[in-house]
Write a structure and sequence with these properties.
This protein is 45% helix and 19% strand. It is globular. Strand 4, helix 5 and strand 5 form a beta-alpha-beta unit. Helix 2 packs parallel to helix 3. A five-stranded parallel β-sheet has the order 2-1-3-4-5, sandwiched between helices. The chain is α/β, with parallel strands linked by helices. The longest helix has 13 residues. It is built from six helices and five strands; from the N terminus they run E-H-E-H-E-H-H-E-H-E-H. It has one domain: 3-Layer(aba) Sandwich (Rossmann fold).
């Protein structure tokens, strides 16, 4: 898939970081982007939007990234439950990364992401 044609959902509760990520996506040519501030609202919209990729924070309230992805993976629609996910988090602890791996995520990036690293991880996720 051409990265510039991807539909991407960003789930990030910090407004400044959300803006940074959205601007970064636009700089690498991804224009079909949607932002949500928590996993609960994002899950409802993901079902409707059917994105190619989700970038999500880990620590959010009321539904954090780990729980959001667990709920996503349990949906009956394969097109949605198998959506590629990349975690974006300031938390790089082994415990948190260890929780993410069994969820079948396509990557884990420590915030704030460098533009080149973000683009490379997105391209890799969309090709796999």
């Amino acid at each position: 898939m051409d990265i510039k044609r991807a539909r991407v959902v960003v789930v990030e509760d910090e407004a400044v970081m959300s803006t940074y990520i959205l601007n970064s996506l636009r700089r690498i040519g991804i224009l079909d982007v949607y932002a949500f501030s928590d996993g609960a609202s994002a899950l409802r919209e993901v079902i409707r939007l059917k994105p190619d990729l989700i970038l999500t924070d880990v620590h959010m309230e009321p539904v954090g990234g780990i729980e959001f992805v667990r709920q996503l993976r349990s949906l009956p629609q394969n097109q949605i439950s198998n959506t590629k996910v990349i975690f974006l988090s300031a938390d790089s602890s082994m415990a948190t990364v260890g929780e993410a791996v069994p969820l079948g995520v396509s990557g884990y990036i420590v915030k704030p992401p460098a533009l080149n690293a973000l683009a490379a991880k997105i391209e890799q996720a969309l090709k796999s």
